[in-house]
Each structure stands twice: as C-alpha cells, then as structure tokens.
Amino acid sequence: MAGEDTSSADLAPPPLPPLAKAAVGTGFAELEGDLLRGTLAMGVDRWFWGEGVCLLATWRAAEARGSTPPQLVLDYMGRHATRLPVLEHVNNMAPAATAAELLRASGDPGARRLVDACLAWYQDAPEATRASNGALEHWPGGVWADTVYMAGEFLLRAGRALERPELTREAVQQWLAHAEQLQDTSTGLFAHGTNQGTRIDCFWGRANAWIALAGADLLHLAGDDPAIGEVRERLAVQLQTLAALQPDHGVWDVLVDGPIETRGILETSAAAGIGAALLRGSALLEQQLPVADRPLRRAGERAVLGSLAYVDDGRLTRVSAGTVLQLIPFGYSVIRDDRVQPWGQGLALEAIAAWNETTAPSSSAPEPEEHS
C-alpha cells in the first residue's frame, strides 16, 4: 500500500534476548517477588480494569504455589466492600473476578456484596449495551476483545462461587459472540474491535491475549458446557497462528501479524498474556502429545521467557498504555510505552502463574515476598 508511515517503526529499539530457561530455577520465585513489590509500589487502589488484572494474576500466582490468599487481595476487597464502588463501565467488572474467587474460597460477605453489585450492573445497567448478536459492547456501537476478559472472567468465576451454572453459560456465550464479531476466519486471529458494526482488522496483541486467556480458562472451568467445543476449535486455530507468527525472541509486535507500520514495536504485556494462554492451552489441547513435541507449549515458553526479560526493578517495561480502538495500523505505533502499567504487572504475573501451573513444581521454591 502506498503511503505507509513507518516513522515510529523505524525508531523501535532492538529486542532483548529472552531469559534462559535453565535460569528459571524455582519457578520465577525471585522475579515474582520483585513484580509483587513493583506492583505494590505502583499502587493498587482504584476499582478498575488494570487493578483487576493485577488482582486476579496475584491470586492465581499464589494459588499455583499452594499459598494462602494474598494480603493484597484481602486488603483491597476489604476497602471496597465497606463502600461499594461506582460502576459505570464494563471495565469495572474486572476486579470482581477476584472477589468471586475470594467468595468461593472463604464465603467472605464483603466479597459477596461486591459480586452481587457487579452482577446487577451487568444484567440491568443502561450502559451495558449489547450488539445484535448479544455481545456485550465495550462502548455503545463497539464490540472489543477486551470485554471477554474484563466481564467474562467475572461471569465464569461468579458462576462457580455462587453455584449458578447459567452464569458460566453466559461467559461461554459471550466469548463466542465476541468471536463471531472479531475472529478472522482465515487466520483465527482476533481484531481489537468493531466500529458501528464494522470489524477493524487491526490484530492487536493485547486483544489476542485477553481473548486467549479467557478462552483457556473456559476450557478449564466450563469444560462440560455444550458450546465448549466451538470455543476449543476457535482457540486452537488462534493459538496455532500466534505460534507460527512468533519471532525467535518470543515477543510479538504490537500488531501480531506484523504490518510494516508497527514492525519492531514490541508489546511485552501481550506476549506475557499470550504466553500464559499458550501454556494453559497446551495443557488442554496437546495433552495427547509427548511433552517434547508440543508446539503450543514451546511457543508459550518462548513468550514467557521473552517477555519477562523486560522486567526491570520489579516493573515490566515496554508495555503500551491503555489503547482505544485505532482505525489504521499506524495508530498502534504511537501509543506510549514508557511508564509502568498495572495490566503489564498483572500479565507478567499471569505468565509466571501459568508457568508454575503447567510445570512440575520444585520443592525448594522460596515463597515470594509481596510486602513493600
């Protein structure tokens, strides 16, 4: 195409070499502790989506080690349960996924109030608009991949905590409704979103991470749903394509299919999230293959080792800021990536959690320190 603007891509710094697998040792325990301290220093206070990603990842990382619920989660939920948060957007659903996990683990009444409030918003709020096929819109007139994680993880986990299988079914149906709107049938990749019913074919990395993470969790936690076979098929094609497009250093460009405008502009949070989804997906989709012959597993390891090479002083670097739907690829080349972001911290912790969930544990692994 004539007129492609490579002015941002031309200035992209070179990739770092991935961490050595042999150096991982005891399941990234030291690095996990550094990330927890960096996350606490950043502050986890608002009832919003970035904080929600951090909370669920922190919970899952502790669960993967067999540890008790993290104090970060207990303190956060206790603060917000005393005065329920203002709910006005789908992104406000994200922290409630961890509230549902706390409710399921302990029956905490404050967590129950938070879960009930978010369910009421999802079901009845005028801001919770739906597309023609029932997909919850991120904004009126726009279906975004982000929503499947922000609301879908909550629905899935609330269904388990409340023993309401209709909520689990709703999580599956939302994933499929979003896939109907956003998945490219030729590659299996997911576009970031739609604009007034038209899919914008920018295959943003973090969009693919959100979808893949939610899809892998559905396979694991909603495996007896009648529609789960379609989730499995769609997710498998997406993950296979992502693995085929992955560079040797493990970290995809901000647009994973590599258009020239964003070539070389890496996005580490997407790689961490996709890596976690590949590891979990491999455990469910490749269990019949020998461990040494699992392409999704190998791609997941490359993504985790590649993305975690960018942790500096407890903070994942080269994480793009909150990104609204862009209409052309160049739009994704100018999103700032020079500051710590809560979703970057959370997705890095998701990568570590998935590694530990799917890798034989070490009995000598130290407990990460989460206090500042």
How are the secondary structure elements laid out?
Elements: H1 29-42, H2 49-65, H3 71-82, H4 94-106, H5 109-124, H6 146-150, H7 152-162, H8 165-182, E1 193-195, E2 198-200, H9 205-221, H10 228-245, H11 268-285, H12 295-308, E3 311-312, E4 315-316, H13 342-358
Antiparallel strand pairs: 1-2, 3-4
Helix pairs in contact: 1-13, 2-4, 2-13, 3-5, 4-5, 4-7, 7-8, 8-10, 9-10, 9-11, 10-11, 10-12, 11-12, 11-13, 12-13
Describe the structure.
With 372 residues, the chain is mainly alpha-helical. The protein is 51% helix and 3% strand. The strands form 2 sheets. A two-stranded antiparallel sheet has the order 1-2. Helix 2 packs parallel to helix 13 and helix 4 (94-106) packs across helix 5 (109-124). The termini are far apart. The mean pLDDT is 95.
How far apart are the termini?
51 Å
Please tally the β strands and state the result. Answer: 4
Q: Kindly estimate the percentage of residues that lie in beta strands according to DSSP.
A: under 5%
Q: State the strand order across the main sheet.
A: 1-2
Radius of gyration: 19 Å
Instruction: Assign the structural class, choosing from mainly alpha, mainly beta, alpha/beta, alpha+beta, or little secondary structure.
Output: mainly alpha
Poorly predicted regions: none
The portion of residues assigned to helices is 40-55%
Mean pLDDT: 95
SSE order, one letter for each helix or strand: HHHHHHHHEEHHHHEEH
Number of helices: 13
Biggest sheet layout: 2 strands, antiparallel
**Broad shape:** globular
